[in-house]
Structures are given as structure tokens and as C-alpha cells.
Amino acid sequence: MGTFKVNIQWNGRNVNGAPFDAKIIDPRKVKVLGGWESFVDSNFNMNLTLKEEKVIRFDTSEAGQGVLSADIKGDSVTGLIPYDLTNASKNLWILKFTPPVQGDYIMNITFGECLINTKPIRGSIKSIDHAKVILTGKGLQTAKVKEQAEFVIDGANAGPGQPFVKLTGVKNDIAVSMKPIDNLSYICTYRPTIAGAYLLDITWSDRQVQGSPFKITVLNSSDAAKVICTGEGLKTGIIGKEIKSTIDTRHAGPGELTASCDGPSIAAYVEIFDHRDGKYTLTVQPQEPGKHILNIQFDGEHVKGSPYSLKIMGPPDASKVRVHGSGVENGILAKFKSNFRVETQGAGAGQLTVRVRGPKGAFNVEMHRDTLKDRAIECRYCPSEIGHYIVNVKWSEQHVPGSPFHVHIVDTQRDLEKITADNNAYTRNYGNMYSNGSGFGEGATMDFNSWIH
Q1: What is the rounded average pLDDT of the residues 40-69?
Q2: pLDDT digit string (tens) for 215-261?
Q3: Based on the domain organization, do 250 and 368 belong to the same domain?
Q4: Which residue, 78, 98, 125, sits at the end of a domain?
Q5: pTM for the whole thing?
Q6: What is the overall mean pLDDT for the chain?
Q7: Tell me: the pLDDT tens digits for 309-365?
Q8: What's the pLDDT at 124?
Q9: CA separation, residue 45 to residues 30, 238, 418, 421 (Å)
Q10: Residue 122: exposed, middle, or buried by beta-carbon count in 10 A (0-12, 13-18, 19+)?
Q11: What is the rounded CA–CA span in Å between residue 73 and residue 108?
């Protein structure tokens, strides 16, 4: 691009007018400030509004030296549409025109008498049908205090126009922000500060759209942190059995309560029962043993403590419990050690119960384990009289292997040897020691429903 000198001679002499100045331009490099996409679609169709001025700014700095011109025609108008095209600065041109009537328009822009693009720019102003304005979004019906609500106005099928929105209430009005998102489509947002009933007025080209005004209910915002969850169903469980817990949402405001529980490979069955007073019963039925993750959410937010880690054990199996130690064997009272050990590893979830029957008032039963995770329990019952003791060891109400254990406590080594040799003889000689006033002594229990093994 630029100015080229063309010299033409005849017999060594310049012809009349030579040398000539040839100005080379490139109309394709005329730019629209903001880009063509701000004014036309991919087919070079321009969005026009009846009696609304359209302003387009052109930059010719890279196109060479030339003059910008335009012609605009309408099928409903005789001749050209009036326009204003000014050279605001050396390379800046501003085109202004106002469509006067409805109909189709065609516009050609030239630079140096050449079209700046390969196809003409077309536009159309159609009649307006307010019934075809489409409104979507939850913000047309309900909202929450201090939370952003939104809705969308789509007037693409309604014809040219612009929306106007107003949200009014008894105590105060709410400002609505409106932002264009596409051709004749707008997203509207607002953030209420006071709960109550409001009216939403929406117009398109100064006329109410269908359904306007809309009644909007603004609710107090929910607070998942105020949801209270209680119950053993938040900690432990046994495979195949329902685990229940209570959820109290009365102080959390309005919202939707949801729950899910995922096992190592299989999701547990979850059911929420609504008592219709702000309280719910959550029932979880795990399908496999192992660690489960329980998610409880209120209005999309985790409640306090969620997600919960549940320890799901297999069903109790008393046959897997093992008991050993001097406390379940015959002995001499003076040096008798009543300690015995109960191993519950592999027995599933359950409750260990130890009760001893013998001479009345002759013993106390004790039970302990070293750590909370220990599946082995040390037991003792401290007998103070000779006699026949029956040690019952049960796992979830079922006798473990060997239970009940018959323990004979005697005075001398000779008596112990005699019992060993002939247990029946001992029963005949010492049976009367507990027949009068015998009963169960003080028992002990320990719950293992909270342990995974």
C-alpha cells in the first residue's frame, strides 16, 4: 500500500500528466472498533431496533489513504436511508444512522470506492410480539436473604426491543442487575436483604411481558451449621441391619435435606422420614462390611460433622470367640488366679457379657481391655469361698465355645487332684456348698459394636 509514481514516455518524453500518482489501498484492512462481532452475526446480519440510532466506528490506519463512504437502503423506504458519516480524525470514521420504519435493510461500506467486506451487511426490524419473550430461572419465583438469585430474559423471538425490570416490596425495593448474554438475551441478578413478598415487573419495549408482574417470595437463608444430627447411626452399624439417627433442622431455616452413604464398593440404602415438624429420621442399611462415608447435606451444604465415617461390621459370630486362662479352670482357693482372657477377633460386632454363678456373696466380676481398639478382654471375678462356679461367657446373647465353664475351687491340692481324677465325685461331695443361697454374682458387659476387624 502507499503512493506509487507511474511515468509514461513517448519517444523519450513524458506524456501529458506524467508522472502519475497511483494510490494503492487495501479495503479489507478497514477495522471496526470493538470488532464486527459486536454488531453482526456470522452471516453479517445486524441487530437493528426501530428508531434507535446505530453508531459504528471505523479505523482505516492500516488500509491506506482513502475515503470511507456508505449507502443504506430499506425495502420499505424510497431511496437511501439518511446517515451521518464523519472523519473524526485522520484514520477514525464514525457512521450514524437511525432505522425509521420496520422492514429489511441492506448496507454497503466502501473505502476508496471498494467494498470493505465480501458481502453486504443486512438487518431487519420485525414487529414485536411481547408474548414470545421467554423467561426462565428460579429467581422468578423465590429467593433467599443475602443470596444471589437470577433469571434470564430471552427476547430473540419477540422482535427488537429492550427489557426493563423493577422489583418492589412492601418494606423496600431490590436493585436488579441486567447484563446482555446473547442476541436479545439478558441475565438478571439480585440479592435481597429482607425476607417477604415482592412483585417483579418486566417489560419489553415498554409493554408488560406475559405473566408480569411476578410474585416472588424471599425466604430467610438456610444455615446448614445449625442442623443437629444425633444417634449411633452416625458412628457404627452391622451389615444387613438398619442404622438410625435423628436430624433436627428446626433452627436451620428453610432448605432441602439430602443424604447418601457409600461403602467400600456398594452404596448403602438410605431413607429419610419427614416427621413434618422440622425433625427427620435417617435410616441407613449397609450392604457390606467396612468403612462407609455418610454425607448429610442441607440445601446443598454439608451439615456439621458431615461427611461421617461409619464403621460397619459383619454380624456377630459367637463361634469365633476364644476363652482361655486360669479363671475358667479348677484351682485351689488360696492361690487361685481368676483371670481369663476373651479373644473376640473375627467375631463381628457384638456385646460381650460375662456372668458368674457360685456361692452367694463370694465374688465380684471385673472386665477391662488395654486400649479402645483392643479386641481382647481381660476378666476376673475374685472368688473368696470354695465351691462350684459357673462362668457364662456370651457374645450378643449367644454362648461362646466352652461356655458355660464349670470351675471347681477347693481347699487343698489333694481335693484338686481328686476333682481332676473324678469330677463326678467332686460334684457329689461339694454340691451342697452352693445349693443353699447360690445365684448369679455381679456380671459385666462390654459393647463392641463400634469396632471394625
Answers
A1: 88
A2: 999 887 788 889 999 998 898 888 878 899 999 999 888 889 999 99
A3: no
A4: 125
A5: 0.41
A6: 85
A7: 998 888 888 999 999 999 999 999 888 998 999 999 888 878 899 998 887 655 677
A8: 80
A9: 19, 68, 114, 112
A10: middle
A11: 9
Q: Name which residue leads in pLDDT, 322 or 429.
A: 322
* CATH, residue 164: 2.60.40.10
3-state secondary structure 358-399: ECCCCCCCEEECCCCCCCEEEEECCCCCCEEEEEEEEECCEE
Task: Mark whether 170 and 286 lie in a shared domain.
Answer: no
Determine the structural domain holding residue 353 and report its residue range. Answer: 318-447
Domains held by the chain: number: 4
**Residue burial 323-336, b: 16+ Cβ < 10 Å; e: rest:** beeebbebbebeeb
Distance of CA 267 to the CA centre of its chain: 18
Domain match, 309 and 343 both: no
Of 316, 310, 301, which Cα lies nearest the Cα of 282? 310
Neighbouring CB atoms inside 10 A of 146's CB total 11
The grid coordinates listed for 6 are 507511474
Let me know how many helices (H) and strands (E) the chain has, helices first. 3, 42
Cell numbers standing for residue 95: 457512521
Cβ neighbors of 193 (< 8 A, separation 6 or more) are: 145, 146, 172, 174
Please choose, from the candidates 231, 297, 306, 311, the residue with its C-alpha nearest in 3D space to the C-alpha of residue 263: 311
The three-state secondary structure class of 139 is helix
Rounded to the nearest 5 degrees, what angle is found at the Cα of 393, between the Cα atoms of 423 and 286?
Answer: 150
Residue 211: what are its φ and ψ, rounded to 5°? Answer: 95, -15
pLDDT higher for 18 or 449? 18
Three-state DSSP class for 417? Answer: helix
User: Minimal CA–CA distance to 291: which of 270, 271, 315, 266?
Assistant: 266
Residues near 22 by Cβ (< 8 Å), separated by ≥ 6? Answer: 3, 4, 5, 6
| 395 and 375 in a common domain | yes
| Chain centroid to CA 326 | 58
Same domain, 210 and 262: no
Whole-angstrom distance, CA of residue 382 vs CA of residue 375:
23
Do 230 and 213 fall within a single domain?
Answer: no
| 369 domain residue, yes or no | yes
Q: 281 with 364, same domain?
A: no
Is residue 16 in some structural domain?
no
Q: Who wins on pLDDT, 125 or 321?
A: 321
Place of cell 464486527: 36
